[in-house]
Design goal:
Elements lengths: L8 H6 L13 H19 L3 H11 L34 H6 L10 H12 L1 H11 L3 H11 L8 H6 L6 E2 L3 E2 L6 H6 L14 H18 L4 H10 L1 H13 L13 H18 L1 H4 L12 E5 L6 H7 L4 H7 L15 E5 H12 L8 E6 L6 H7 L4 H7 L12 E6 L11 H9 L6 E6 L6 H8 L3 H7 L13 E6 L8 E7 L6 H8 L3 H8 L12 E7 L8
Antiparallel strand pairs: 1-2, 3-4, 5-6, 7-8, 9-10
Helix pairs in contact: 2-3, 5-13, 10-11, 11-12, 11-13, 15-16, 21-22
Length: 554
Amino acid sequence: MQSKLFPFAPIILALGLSGCQLTENESEKLAVEENEKAALEACSETYLGEEEIADCEIARDGVIDVIHPKDDILEETAEITEPENVAVAPVITDVWQRASNSFSLHIPDDNRVTAQRDWYLKHPEYMARVVKRAKPFLYYIVEEIEKRNMPMELVLLPIVESAFDPFAYSHGRAAGMWQFIPSTGKRFGMPQNWWYDGRRDVIASTQGALDYLTYLNEMFDGDWLHALAAYNSGEGRVMRSIRANKRAGKPTDFWHLGLPRETRAYVPKLLALADILKNKKTFDFSWPEVENIAVIEVVDIGSQVDLAFAAELADMSLKELHGLNPGFNRWATSPDGPHRLVLPVEKAASFSQALAKIDRKERLNWVRHTVKSGDSLGKIANQYHTTIKVIQQVNELDSSMIRIGQAIMVPVALKALDDYALSKEQRLASIQSSNKSKQKVRHTVQSGDTLWDIARKFKVSTRQLAKWNGMAPGDMLKPGKTLVIWLEGKSDAGVTKKLTYTVRSGDSLSRIASKFNVKVSDISKWNSLNAKQYLQPGQKLKLYVDVTRLTSTG
């Protein structure tokens, strides 16, 4: 879907999620109105018929519009082989049936539930895709919910949040199967760093989501519908709505609260799914079965390991391994942990035995780098795709000072980085190269740029621009970042490049601006200059220039 969301990007960013949760300091009424308008525009642009537009609006209700970088990522994870001699429940062979037998939440006769239920019933192919993604992780999630004696309907929450895709992301920088923003992810045990993002780790994010939902349930005195609403829109927003209803003498149950449109549909969406699953025979709905046995196992690895090396030990492809361990951003697990891998249950024992025979130093590939003139730890870290901290730890360096001729040991990837298909860099490269039927233009982000500015310049939507670059429409831009824009046919939009210009005798800001077809004010902004100050010969200036419109730089 390509929607014209860019006029509302600042509003959407301000609504940032807490689990999928929204921030609370913006005008709620304005946010609701703009969300509804944006959703309607998106539907109108994507669907043609009146019935299809209604379908689209229902489908979008209740979730922040998540983006799936590549729909078949989890479909290509390890082919799970059911282990032999595993005790299976004598009667219940489908884990979905096991879950639905424990459903306890009341499903009211409400138009909102009916509308969501009707949409799912009309789109069985959607559930087929979702269940395919859920298959490796479903049994584990059901087990964890049972251990905590929580409502089993919560197993359906990843459908509402992300369609069970751990690689999904949405505006407000929410990521993962359970859609956590960075701050709430860290609050509930999901670290995020250069090596690892716990929000995409199915183990860490499931534990964090259940912890957060338990916290919310206690906050709202055991009312699970209030807790679910708060998971979506933030506890403060729900609490304020309850207090407002009390003051007005109105009922305070979920169905009477004045909440954003998204949240008003979010809880009904979950209940509609529960109703269909519980009564699939009545509805004649083909909900795909998943065998009621454990298919994955969490293996303690004790220290950092190259993912390609681990895949070989486990007799898996690197893509299969990464599909089960989506939290890792790079070519290796994080040096600071978590030191675990998720493996198919039938491969876990042999992997653990093989790994135990290998010295920890041999779990990574190493190079001996001799420091030369111009080297710094940062430069060396970039060269070998690692971090300064890792190099310092490995070489027992107390500072960033290094000397020419010094020998430094650096861990490096076992295979070419292109082979790590699900690493953060390769996912982005794949996304940015996926639209080969159009003309690709690269734009280097300048100070002050926003997605809305760039989208307007190239006559595309902010949603398109974000999707092409592995971002969400509300994400902030950093100067120097390269964005890819795909345009229809031949474009006169140009190609913006960063140049370094050396000031010559007689140069002025106006003369340089004229030479490179830019504004004096832009040069001043890019270089933090006072427009009235004199330039010095030899001074270096950063310029962001449309190189297709240059004639000669002299």
